[in-house]
Amino acid sequence: MAGQPRESGEGRKRDFLLTAGIILGSLIVLNLPPGSQRSIQLFLRETVLSPLLEINGAIARMRERALDFNVLRAQMDSVTGLVAAGRTLAEENRQLREALGLSERERHQVRAATVIRTGTPGAESIFLLDAGSDDGVRPFNAVATEAGLLGQVQEVFSGRAVGFDWSHRDFRASAMTPDGRTYGLVEAVRGGFREQDRLILRGTAYLSDLSPGEELLTSGRGGTFPRGIRIGWVAEPAEASAGWSRSYYVDPAVYPGAATHALVYLDSVADTVAVEPDSAAGPGQADQR
């Protein structure tokens, strides 16, 4: 009985020293240069946090496999119908481009990946992917779901990658309406709570009046996001800049917290259509044309 108070006092002292050491270490890390902080993050991610990340990935994959079979079957039937209807249009487009001597559009290869959320405070806009450099994933690759644009890849490692979604402060995407008449830049706007984060379209022409519900797609400008990925829909006007431009709030097509599976857009592939020169023209005449 006499030894218990001494052991209890030693335990409290040990806990106090451990807590003080953690606080001191945190203050030192917070004041390090950004490069050193990234090195420490990489070290912790590769050592201490590696088992936890593997467990989170396994749980996310199990949750994905547990989706309702009927939902997956309905999605597969819808995709099959779209593919069957698009074959005729694709063939007509190919014949028309060949007749005009145009090259094929760029086709982006995609890699399916599972989206894993770390769940740590301050990293709400960050997600992990179970695909990395070994799968052809590169920094700045676009990440999208079947509903639309989710975000982009930030860092790539062997077997996994780190990305951020559209709610991140560094997110920017060039957007356009489906008819290609209105262009602008979409970025995130922080709300009072993270659940109130939303998108805003800036830089549109002042005379371009967009109505609520109009769809917005990626324009392909800048080279980061391929053309034609759905971003969202116009919600309401935001502001006007002295007669020069308009801004609109945008309802996103994808809510980041609900994304469990995504496609990573890899490097594009373009096939050039070879057009034979007119048989009546000689080599020199063909060059002159």
Look at the structure and give the mean pLDDT. Answer: 79
What does the largest sheet look like? 6 strands, antiparallel, barrel
CATH fold group of the domain at 172-254: Thrombin, subunit H
What share of residues is helical?
Answer: 25-40%
Walk me through the structure.
- The protein has helices at residues 3-30, 34-46, 50-65, 69-100, 283-288; strands at residues 107-116, 126-129, 142-144, 149-157, 160-165, 172-176, 183-189, 198-205, 215-218, 230-241, 245-252, 261-269.
- Residues 269-289 have low confidence and may be disordered.
- It has a domain at 172-254: Thrombin, subunit H (Beta Barrel), CATH 2.40.10.
- A six-stranded antiparallel barrel has the order 1-2-5-4-3-12.
- The chain is globular.
- Helix content is 33%, strand content 29%.
- It starts with a helix and ends with a helix.
- It is built from five helices and twelve strands.
- It has 289 residues and is an alpha+beta fold.
- Strand 10 and strand 11 form a beta hairpin.
Give a short summary of the structure.
With 289 residues, this protein is of the alpha+beta class. The protein contains five helices and twelve strands.
Helix and strand layout, with pairings?
Blueprint: H1 3-30, H2 34-46, H3 50-65, H4 69-100, E1 107-116, E2 126-129, E3 142-144, E4 149-157, E5 160-165, E6 172-176, E7 183-189, E8 198-205, E9 215-218, E10 230-241, E11 245-252, E12 261-269, H5 283-288
Antiparallel strand pairs: 1-2, 1-12, 2-5, 3-4, 3-12, 4-5, 6-7, 6-9, 7-8, 8-11, 9-10, 10-11
